[in-house]
Predict the structure.
Amino acid sequence: MNEGGRPVKAAVFNAVNEPLTIEDIEVAAPTGREVLVRTAASGVCHSDLHFIEGLYPIRTPAVLGHEAAGVVEAVGPNVAEFAPDDHVIACLSVFCGHCERCLSGQTQLCTQKPQRGPGETPVLSMGGQPVQQGFRLGAYGEQMLVHENAIVKINSDMPFAQAALIGCGVTTGVGAVLKTAKVEAGSTVVVFGAGGVGLAAIQGARIAGARRIIAVDMVEHKLATARELGATDSVDASIEDPVQKIRELTGGGADYTFECIGLKAVAEQAFEAIRPGGTATVVGMIPVGQSVEVPGAALLGEKKLQGSNMGSNQFKIDMPRYIEFYEQGRLRLDEMITKRGKLEDINEAFRAMKAGEVARTVLMHD
Ligand SMILES: [Zn+2]
Ligand SMILES: [Zn+2]
C-alpha cells in the first residue's frame, strides 16, 4: 500500500502530436475529502486523442486518462463514503453538491467542480514541478488522487476492465439515449459511429426498446460488431449516402439520431436524418472553434438539435445501474474490449484507435 508521496508510473503528455512518455511521478497524499485510488484498469477513450492532437487545449506536462476503475488505498480525514480496499469507478463528472446545477439534479453540469487551489501542493508533480491532472483524474497513472465526488463504489466481483468502460464510454453512450434523449420504446434510432461510445448508444437504444436501430460507420467490421450488439440495420457511409438510406429505412427520417464521433459534417447529417419533430443529439466532441450549421427553415418542422455531456449522468446512481444491466446480460461489455495492454502500450493503443482497428483498448496496471 502506498499512501501517496512515493513515485508511481504514469504516461505523460508532453507536447501536441508527440508520443506519451512513461515517467515516475509523485502523487500527493489525500487531504480533506480526497481519496487515493490504485488504478487497476484504464480504457483508452477517443477524447484523450482530441487533447493529444491539440483539438482541445490542456497545459503540459499532463497525465490524461479518464476511464478507470481501481481500489481505494487511502482516504482523507473528511471522507465518509469510502474506505481502503473499496472497489470504485472514477468519473470526470466530479461535482460539488451545492451549486445550482448540482441541486437541480444536473451534477454533470456542476459549475464549481472541486479541485486543489493554486496555493496548495499540486496533486501530481515530477521532479518538483507540477504536472496537470487531466479531467481531475489522470487515469493513465498507477494512482489517482481524486475528490470523493469523482468516484462511485462498486461490488468487488465486477471485473475491473469492464468497470473501467462504464467510467466514460458506456455512461456517455447509454446515458445519451436513456437520459439525455429519453428514447421511448418503439422509436427509430440512428447511431453515427460504431466505436466505444456508439456501441454503448446502440445498446442503450436496445435497452430502451427502440424498434429500429440503424448503425452508420465506414468500417465494415465495426458495423458487424454493431449488429451483434443490437443494431437492426447498418449503413456503410463509405459506399452510400447515409441520410438518403436512413430516410428510406425509416420512411422519411428517424425519431432520434446520435452523433458519436465528434465531426461537424456528421452532426449536420444527424440533424438532416431526423423526421419533423425528431431529435438529433451530438455526443461526440466537436473540435473547439468549429460550428455546426443547420438549415433555418428545418426548424419549422420542430426538429431539435441538442448536446449531451457524459450521458447526462448522475454517475453515483447510474453506474451501479449499468453494472446491473451488465450482470443481467443486457449491457454487453466483454465484446467491447477489443484489446488489453499495459501502460507502456498506450501509444500503440492510440495508433490502433486512429486506424479504426479497435472499439476499446483497456490498459491493465497490475
Ligand atoms: Zn472518454
Ligand atoms: Zn456543483
